[in-house]
Write a structure and sequence with these properties.
By secondary structure, the chain is α+β, with helices and mostly antiparallel strands. It is about 20% helix and about 20% strand. A 4-stranded antiparallel sheet has the order 3-2-1-9, with no helix packed on it. The protein has a 4-stranded antiparallel sheet with strand order 4-6-7-8, with no helix packed on it. Keywords: Disulfide bond, Lectin, Membrane, Secreted, Signal, Transmembrane, Transmembrane helix. This is FAM3 metabolism regulating signaling molecule A.
Length: about 210
């Protein structure tokens, strides 16, 4: 019976020692905080470091434009519901939010043939022209407007038809056809929307026209 006291003390020391060892293992040692415990309650997937967001440049372009170039991004209208957007040098020129777009050809809010001709004819040499369709770009166009767009560098203006999608960047006085143009025909076999093709998106860098050129 006299050994009961010492045995209890030994048992207590052993218990405390084992507890200390277990706690030390879980805590990862002195000064290390709680990494081991956190690892026990953290799923493997959650330990993956989140990738940093890709940097966006002017008008949301993935890469910056070279010096003496203008950054642009434009989106044609989606069916007759979502209006087009035209961004130049990080400034939104036209959008549904700005409430300055309309159905037809969005160079400005011009839907009348006579107004359109008055708008295009007096352009100065080197003037950039941004065009984004919305709903239907062709109904208000005649042969002269198609020819004028061709002179601005368009390949597709002459064949635009009812409810086609079209985005185009041209310039007054260009010698060659513009590389900045997209066109999708309205076709019931390929349309994304009922009665309309998909919206078009185009972005890029346009060289500035030097004063001497």
């Amino acid at each position: 019976m006299r050994l009961a006291g010492p045995l209890r003390i030994v048992a207590l020391v052993v218990t405390v020692g084992l507890t200390w060892i277990v706690v030390s293992i879980l805590l990862g040692g002195p000064g290390s905080g709680f990494p081991r415990i956190q690892q026990l309650f953290t799923s493997p997937g959650s330990s993956v470091t989140a990738e940093p967001r890709a940097r966006k440049y002017k008008c949301g372009l993935p890469q910056p434009c070279p010096e003496e170039h203008l950054a642009f991004r434009m989106v044609s209208g989606a069916a007759n519901v979502i209006g087009p957007k035209i961004c130049l040098e990080d400034k939104m020129l036209m959008s549904g939010v700005k409430d300055n777009v309309g159905r037809g050809l969005n160079i400005a809010l011009v839907n009348d043939v006579n107004d359109l001709l008055k708008f295009i004819r007096p352009l100065h040499e080197g003037t950039l022209v941004f065009v984004a369709s919305y709903d239907d770009p062709a109904t208000k166009m005649n042969e002269e407007t198609r020819k004028l767009f061709g002179e601005l560098g368009s390949r597709n203006a002459k064949e635009l038809a009812f409810r086609d999608s079209w985005v185009f960047v041209g310039a007054k006085g260009v010698q060659n056809k513009s590389p900045f143009e997209q066109h999708v025909k309205n076709s019931k076999h390929t349309n994304k929307y009922e009665g309309w093709p998909e919206a078009l998106e185009m972005e890029g860098c346009i060289p500035r026209r030097s004063p001497a050129s």
